[in-house]
Design a protein that fits this description.
Chain A is mainly alpha-helical and 224 residues long. Chain A is built from nine helices and no strands. In chain A, 48% of the residues are buried. With 257 residues, chain B is mostly helical. The chains are: A mainly alpha (224), B mainly alpha (257).
Amino acid sequence: MSFARESLLVAAKDLRIEARSRVTLYQVLPFGVVVLLLFAFALDPDRGQLSRVAPGLFWVAVLLAALLAVSRAFAIEIDNGARDGLRLSGLDPAAIFVGKAAAVAAELVVLELVLGVGVFLLYDVELRSAGLLVVAALAATVGVAATGTLYGVLVAGLRARETLAPVLVLPVVTPVMLGATRAWEAGLDGAPSEGWPWVALLGLFALLYGALGTLVFGPLLEET
Amino acid sequence: MTHTADDANLLPRRVGAAVGLFALAALVVLAILGLAVAPPDDVQGDAQRLMYLHVPTAWLAYLAFGVTALGSALYLWPRTRSNVWDRLAGASAELGVVFTALTLVLGSLWGRPVWGIWWAWDARLVSTAVLFFLYLGYLALRRIPGAGREQRCAIAALVAFVDVPIVHFSVEWWRTLHQEGTVFNEELSAQIEGVMAFTLVWAVVAFTAVYVFFLDRRYRLLSLEEEDERQALEQAIADRIAEGRGRADAVGAGVGS
């Protein structure tokens, strides 16, 4: 089986589980929307603060929800010895990493679509360059999914993994938070040309952590 | 899980003690140099004396994290795999986190009288704070036992280390795009020379000795903890075997009577 086919198989498996269990749909997605509402409660919506800081709030909401999505991606491997099955399946560990990260990324894209609509409806923002927003979001999503999946397997099976994962992942994705927020600011309210260098940074981050993940996923999967 | 007597210490005990004594003496000399001998700064006055602590702690934070990355890489490299490197990485990361925290606190104390603020969203401050949390997470991970802990931690240390330049670059870029000139302006960082320069160099030497001393002590503590765990495990196994034998004897005696 080719690498791409193996990755696709793992991604399809994870997404099928999500489609049937609906945990992402009924828990992670509403969580993201509630975070958006909380920001509106924290900042006075009448003074135009929300529209100014909308990109940052959007990406904080995405990151927090991404933590849940990643934790979920590894929780589904616990029951019925699924992780042993995965290990014994003979699939390339790098392909398993890419597949799981792709599934997380796909879930995040759905989440971002919903939250993006929420930001437009609730926060009263203007749109300058939709292309910049989409490309920046895709690059950031791949970076977050790759980093999250890497740390997800790192803490899988450990005690206190639910609290450990955020403290490990959030500092690492600082550049994604910065880059995605700046790019979105440029695409919404500023000059779109200022956003593209940040997209390059996001792309670099995604490539680097994608490569790191494919490299170390095998040894980490073996031992947990 | 190899354990031999000769890797229980990082430095020979006498060398470690000598480094400790030197570090203590060097700190006393530094206190005299920094507080009495070196003149107060023309612009900042006595507040500038914090430089003799702030600069060496920042330098040691970087050194310590560099050593952690090196130890982790050597642990992962199959030919050099040894718990020596795992302990070195762990001990150095602990010191790195302490020195990073000291750098932030001392910088804050220095910033208050000179800039009038405790904290500025300056690129260097922000990336140092992120660095602190990156390695705080690594230390949290180290505390969790389980099979393959050493390898897991080594990978985590390298993944965090790769992030350091990206964080630094992105934060730098972020602040220079949005802020005209930083608080670290040229006028405040005037040239230093003479006694002040010597005191700063001496401070770096003294703090490096402190680092080496504590690295050796923390390394020794980690190897003792490993030894303790190993002995406890052996004892537990011996107890269970003895318990099994005792039960077998009791059953045997019951049959005999």
